[in-house]
Every structure is written in structure tokens, then in C-alpha cells.
Amino acid sequence: MSQGMLQNRFLMFLLCVSFFGILLSALLAVFPPVLDEDFVWRKHVVGFVFGLICVSGILAAFFPRWCTHLFSFRGEDGRALHGFFSGMDGHHPGCENFAPHVFRMGNRRFCVACTGLTVGGLLALTGTILYFFVDWNVEQNIVFVLAGILGVSLGLFQFRMKRRFVRFSLNVFFVLGSFLVLVGIDRLVQGLFADLFLLALIVFWLFTRISISEWDHGRICYACNMAVCKFRKPKMS
């Protein structure tokens, strides 16, 4: 973990809470509580909420300006520097330092991470429909939770990866990991409150992931030696 991240107290708080949530998820899987709940529509309610999270992320990829107003910083010219799932219009500065963060298709620039998150959202949404609404039979297996925890953990630190395909894959796995944790805990615990806790935790993981991305982009700009750059904020003396 870099020194800059350690000095960012808010980011460290987000990471500590995120990994504490990961630990609690693992404990829920290893020691599932015995609950006496009989809520008939539990799976449908949980599936609807998680599906809404996935759909919101997917829509943000096609309407990046809407998402930019909610989750981004802007440069001096008003251009979105960073965003949420704004994969349809590259939101990184046109700089070689951000080359691992983007790929091109024709004349369009796409964010590698946001595209991966979008693909992961589509796959997770498909799994949500199958499991929560079509009654896809999933055996009680802690492997789902452990695989999901691995995906979330790697996704939180994907900014260290330089290869585009690796960054893309880890962001897909990050969203799928959240889905696997939710399904695994739902199958093992079968409790509404446990599911709602996981849903809140997944939203928090997403917020942490966005915050880490913002920090990483700022770190790259701060370390740049370019004499004149309208995207970089002046260094503090």
C-alpha cells in the first residue's frame, strides 16, 4: 500500500470499513446464524434491490453525463475527469500517463475499468434474474462466498495493474464477486437482515472503489512532470 494512500485518512477509513465488511461476510459464511424468519418475498425483494444497483450502473455507462453530476470531479474546462460507469465516453485526460486506463474503438475512447464494471454488471444482472426470480438452484457452498471475497478484494486494488486486459478482468470480477458474496450468504443464512446488510455493504464497496479510482487519478496527475496541463491541479507548497 502506497504512502500517499496511507496519508489519506478518509480513504483509509473507507478501506478499513470495506475489509471489515469482507471479514464479517467470511464469518457469516463460516458460522451462519440460525434464524427463524419466514418472509415469503425475501428473495424477490433482495433480487430487486440488487438488480436495481446493477441497472443503475449499466445505465450510467450509456448516460455518463448523468452519472458525472453525481460521482465526478471536473477539470477547469468543465470536462469530466473521472466518473462512475461512464464507459461510453472516455473520462480520462488525453495523456500518455493514462494509457493503461483507456482503449480505443475507432474514434471513441473507452475507460477500461468502467467497461469492465459494466460487463460485470450485465453478468451479475443475468445471475440475479436466474437466482432470485427464476429459482435457479444453488447448493449451500462456502466456495461462492470465498470466490466473491477474492473478487471484491482484488477489485479494490486493481489500480496497481498496468495491463488493460487485467484491469478489465478484475473489474468484471469485482462486480461478480459482490454478486457471489450476496448469493452465497443468502443461500447459507437465508435471512432478510443478512441480505440487507450485504446490499448496504456492496454499495459501500462500490463507493470505496470509486474513491480509490479518484485518488489514483489524482496521484497520476500529481506525479506528472508536464510543464503545462489544464487537468492537473497545482501542487501544494
Q: Can you give keywords for this protein?
A:
237 residues, mainly alpha, two-stranded antiparallel sheet, 8 helices
Q: What does this protein look like?
A:
With 237 residues, the chain is mostly helical. It is built from eight helices and two strands; from the N terminus they run ααααββαααα. The chain has helices at residues 3-7, 9-30, 42-62, 64-71, 112-133, 142-156, 164-189, 192-223, and strands at residues 102-105, 108-111. A two-stranded antiparallel sheet has the order 1-2. Strand 1 and strand 2 (108-111) form a beta hairpin. It is globular, with a radius of gyration of 19 Å. The model is unreliable at 70-89 (pLDDT under 50).
Break the fold down into its secondary structure elements and pairings.
Blueprint: H1 3-7, H2 9-30, H3 42-62, H4 64-71, E1 102-105, E2 108-111, H5 112-133, H6 142-156, H7 164-189, H8 192-223
Antiparallel strand pairs: 1-2
Strand coverage percent: under 5%
Overall body shape: globular
State the end-to-end distance. Answer: 24 Å
Rg for CA atoms? 19 Å
Number of separate helices? 8
Q: How many strand segments?
A: 2
Spatial order of strands in the largest sheet: 1-2
Q: Quick check: average pLDDT?
A: 78
Q: From N to C, what is the helix and strand string?
A: HHHHEEHHHH
Gist of the model:
The protein has 237 residues and is mostly helical. The protein is built from eight helices and two strands.
